[in-house]
């Protein structure tokens, strides 16, 4: 772990002159170097993410060879967005009362924001607070249980129903016969059952044109078959599906994936970062006053709080970006938490 | 005494794998359908605990994954974080008829034989990932972007089967104290850093009142020398892909076969190591004691094995991945906005 840390700090130091000239606070955009620094920070903080190099022929020379894009695999997606939208006001109020003073509305509640600006305005409060709420999203009970019983047309296979294909298996009492059930059913599910859910592989690439990160999704159904684009849209907040989310060719793989179009990412990121900086400046001033009061009269025994600590650093960019993305894909439970 | 039942692997093929297979078929193998070596990976199982009482806990299946790096050799194939290598053989047929008529039992037996040979020769002691060998038969319909496939995860049959002593599988937190659990986690992290990925999925543990030690299978005799069995000091551990409380994952089957044949063990403590990814939390690990009446050594004759994956209907049969939506240029034109 230590070596990772050393490496990480090494990289950060190496890049720091670049970061000082950064325009990310003014524009919301980041440079490829900053993307890599932010990616390193994400991988360090959330080890389920890692760097990949992708197809050799599609390598971008402004990124490091082994750090072309980020990926996290097998991320569970418990329910469809539609199911979340069945709920009434409950979900929202729950979130509001969790911490009395600031009403931060998670779009998890199904009350999806109508446009991207609204999301930015929702994401206020300091980082810890956002964390706290996103770590414990209040998810509501699935009301429509009947949906589970509708047989899935996709379950009818092509080749599968044909001949036995000549495989012989011995009697095997030591194999657990799968008692798994397909997800979305929450009634008295005993804890020793495997609940099958959709999973996603989530990618973050660097979009050179928009100078922002870009998120890509590849989904698998409960039986690990790739999802169709129609199915993927079920997991995207309805206000985004087919508008800001499109199916396009992955820049580093020979494959088409659903992607959240980055045309407004910079604006939103700028807003979120501004809000976070404002909040933490307030906190900083409070701390500074406390410090001055506490140290009045006696000589310094503690270092005064530094103003830099109160500002969002560029290497935190992707963590903030992921929180922003979680409003577009509210049901995909990827790791955007800061563990330490 | 209850029967020890193992959770079978569920195959999880990443879509880029099929793409890589297609391009290799076209550019490299052409009509050559000789089996090729591939590299898979698996991670430890864990349960996502529900945030409130309404929801059920989410228990993920024990996945054996194949990514686009599956065709690289072991050293250059990059292992996703917090996962373990597995090695397999892919047989890609040229036609759907060949796929149907292929003698799959023979392929399965061949892989079983390799596992047995690795146990007898001791190769599996140095590189225990060899215990997780698998077989994959495929037919790639390149025009329709459809892939028919069938995984087999051979496990040697033990007769009579292993049973769980006292009928108890306990959570690690019920048996060990917090300091011990943390010591185990840290020592295992160090063990993983110090050893190649081919041997970190299976390991030895010695728990005394002073410390928790982790060892490599190849140091068995030295590591367990003057071990006090009465005190339950001797323990084997493995990275467990299962997330079920009472059932360890498939890799333990061949591991137990190795332990029994190599070191004449008929009763042993087992630690099912389960880590919540990225959370430095191993509190979902399970501990059990297993034993068997089987004293028969794996003879020259190949023992019986099981482990063909069932399809989505729960029957023995192949599966199909349809990637036309994501790879077919015609269909892509329809969905793009």
TrEMBL record, chain A:
> What biological-process terms (Gene Ontology) are attached?
autophagosome assembly; autophagy of mitochondrion; glycophagy; nucleophagy; protein transport
Q: Would you tell me the protein name for this molecule? A: Autophagy-related protein 3
Task: Name one molecular function that GO assigns to this entry.
Answer: Atg8-family ligase activity
Q: Which GO terms describe its cellular component?
A: cytosol; phagophore assembly site
Q: Family membership, please give it.
A: Belongs to the ATG3 family.
Q: Which residues form a coiled coil?
A: none
Gene source species: Diversispora epigaea
**What InterPro entries is this protein classified in?**
Atg3/Atg10 (IPR007135)
